[in-house]
Design goal:
Shape: elongated
Strand order of the largest sheet: 2-1-11-10-7-8
InterPro entries: Cell_Proc_Reg/RNA_Proc, FHA_dom, SMAD_FHA_dom_sf
Number of domains: 2
Number of helices: 1
CATH architecture of the largest domain: Sandwich
CATH topology of the largest domain: Tumour Suppressor Smad4
Strand content: 25-35%
Domain FHA: 77-126
Mean pLDDT: 88
Distance between the termini: 79 Å
Low-confidence stretches: none
Transmembrane segments: 6-28
Keywords: Membrane, Transmembrane, Transmembrane helix
Protein name: FHA domain-containing protein
Radius of gyration: 27 Å
């Protein structure tokens, strides 16, 4: 009987300390989130990484719809055959939503959007996201761009 009483008292103590630990963890998370919220509102530029000034220069126009010679890249730029894209290439070998360039973690990434004929980065067909560097060549259909920062 004394062993059962001792075991039950020990179990109650362990549960009480466990509950205390969970409450402390909860309070820490709340205070940490409040701190982050306050810190980001006082200096939002520290949390938002602004894109560099990337641009695409047209080397070969192909079936490019516009006469524009350069396209500035903000956070993203979409390339394809449909009207909803930032750069429209009216060519049957170009998918409606063909490729995208996005700024992520300080780098510009070229992504093929599962197009039928693929996207070439420096004459190589890309499978996954590809990091762009100054002077890289991007080929979509018969249109060729040069990436600059």
């Amino acid at each position: 009987m004394a062993n059962k009483l001792l075991a039950s008292n020990l179990l109650v103590i362990v549960l009480q300390y466990g509950m205390l630990l969970l409450m402390c963890l909860f309070l820490y998370r709340v205070i940490h989130l409040v701190y982050l919220d306050f810190y980001s509102s006082t200096n939002p530029s520290l949390l938002v990484v602004k894109p560099k000034s990337g641009k695409l220069k047209v080397i070969n126009r192909g079936s490019l719809v516009t006469d524009q010679a350069e396209f500035p890249i903000g956070e993203t730029i979409n390339i394809g055959r449909s009207e909803g894209n930032d750069i429209i290439i009216n060519e049957t070998t170009v998918s409606f939503e063909h490729a995208c360039i996005s700024y992520y973690c300080g780098e510009y990434l070229l992504s093929d959007l599962k197009s039928t004929n693929g996207t070439l980065h420096n004459d190589l067909r890309i499978q996954d996201d590809s990091v762009l560097h100054r002077g890289d060549k991007i080929t979509i259909g018969s249109t060729i761009f040069l990436f600059e920062e």
